Amino acid sequence: MIDKTFTCIVCPNGCKLNATVLEDNKLVVTGNKCIKGIDFANNEIFNPKRMLTTTVKTTFNSMPYLPVRTESEIPKEKVFQVMNVLRTTVIKRQLKVGDIVIENVLDTGINVIATMNTEEKRYG
Amino acid sequence: MKTAIFFWVKKMKYDVTVIGAGPAGLAAAISADKNGAKVLLIEREDKLGGVLKQCIHDGFGLIKYGEKLSGCEYANRSIDELMKRDVSLKLRTFVSKVTKKKDGFNLLLSSSGKLENIETKKIIFATGCRERTPKQVAIHGSRPAGVFTAGLAQYYLNVNGQMPGRKCVILGSGDIGLIMARRLTLEGASVLGVYEAKDSPSGLTRNIYQCLEDFDIPLYLSHTVTRLHGRNRLEGVTISKVDEKMEPINGTEEYVSCDTLIVSVGLIPENELPKTLDVPMSKYTKGAIVNQYYETLVNGIYACGNALHVNDLVDYVSESGEEAGKFAAIRDKSDAETIDVNFTSDFGYVVPQKIVKDSETATFYFRTSRIRENAVVKVYNKDEEIFRKKYLNLKPPEMEKIKVNIEDVSEIRFVMEVSK
Asked: Given an 8 Å threshold on Cβ–Cβ distance, is A55 in contact with B56?
């Protein structure tokens, strides 16, 4: 049996949830003001996911590190493993916002994408 | 005979000059151009985007774009939009002096050792805010290396790829501090704890959850750092419990060994230039006092974004820029009467602080002064209730926005009713 308390972050109400997983894997949630709290607790217990944002090294003087993120949320337990992959990644070609840095990182089915243009745009 | 050569350089003239090219300034410049003004945008750095350049984390743009973007992506969208418009842009340029003239302002600009004067009918201050520094919170002891503001640590790590330290203590539970707690942990540092002098967190709930609880980083409320230890590099800090007046309690001191202290103790709107023009400031927001058109009490000077009041969401920063840009472009002097917006001590602040009696509706932003459950916010015109909204939860870190019908009002008063 798992017993967990956490704060629901779906909306600003921030309900304090208490979730209990019974032996038949049934979930009992208390403290939620709406149904979204149950979905949130369900995901957090059985399939927690997180967006990962970080930077990767480049070979460009004007921008030695490029900000990147996972295109969507990845399983929470893979966060540090993906960080290890990205720590050894070096960008050598010019990329634009949204371009893929790593395809299907660690078989999650999710790409890592650039969140900034590498080329130094000097406006004005 | 020596000949002196004089160049008569014709001064450039603009309708609207926006100072600062962060999210507020970008939105203001785009919007002023859309509304037909001849616009100049001035930025002291060599890239556009302001602090968003170092905000690699996500959660930006939920209101404006309906998507969770990183700060960099959010900035990029505004920059792309700006590039399509006919806005004059001066990067690596600093505004040294602003002088009021009969019909507008003269700006002395400094750029790469050159000085230039320009004329503008209106100015929009979009200069953002600055971090409160460790020097502004009294901590005893030596002054070793290894003490950073959260934003500076963020710049080192995200832009330069430099680790501020390995064993970190965070003072203050502001959002940047919380985000840095996660960021440093992901990069392999150990974050020993976040210490907050207040009895409730300063940051957003989602950041407490995703940045601290996810990584088992403890949050100590009613605690503060009272002494730094170490000669050259920080070696440790003394932590003390504080009472309700946030004064350290004797005998509660505890030593924590660490090599880095990250201070996230709040942001203050940047208003050095408007102060030289005697623009009246609000003691509550630390920004200029404005009306619903984002115009300050000095005619022709507008303020928006975090220079006006510190926002928790960039979407609202862009929104205020957009409005300020529009009104700076289209508005003429108004003869309508201006009235005060009053509020009780249940509110941290209400913006705008003034209302010009020539519009039907006005948008107000407010913060509660403390955590409230089941509160009703009411707006009165003298004794007549003109607006009410019920809130299950009101928290000081979370700004609220309401739209109020203000036709024929003669006095505006914000009141909060709290059950229990």
From this structure: yes
Question: Has residue B253 got a pLDDT over 90?
Answer: yes
- Verify that B381 and B343 share a domain, yes or no: yes
**Within chain B, what is the greatest distance between any pair of CA atoms?**
90
Interface of B with A in 48-77 (CB under 8 A): 48, 53, 56-58, 68-70, 72-73, 76
Q: Are residues B328 and B388 in the same domain?
A: no
Say how far apart CA B246 and CA A43 lie, in whole Å.
39
Provide the pLDDT for residue B6.
60
Phi, psi of A43, rounded to the nearest 5 degrees: -65, -45
* B119 and B151 share one domain: no
pLDDT for B346 beyond 70: yes
What's the pTM?
0.92
Q: Provide the domain limits for residue B391.
A: 335-420
Residue type, B142: S
**Residue A2 and residue A23 in contact, taking contact as beta carbons nearer than 8 Å:** no
The residue-averaged pLDDT of A70-96 equals: 95
Q: Which of A97, A112, A113, A119 to mutate to test the interface with B (most CBs of B within 10 A)?
A: A97
Whether residue B70 contacts residue B55, with contact meaning beta carbons closer than 8 Å, is answered with yes
Global ipTM:
0.90
| Average pLDDT over all residues of chain A | 89
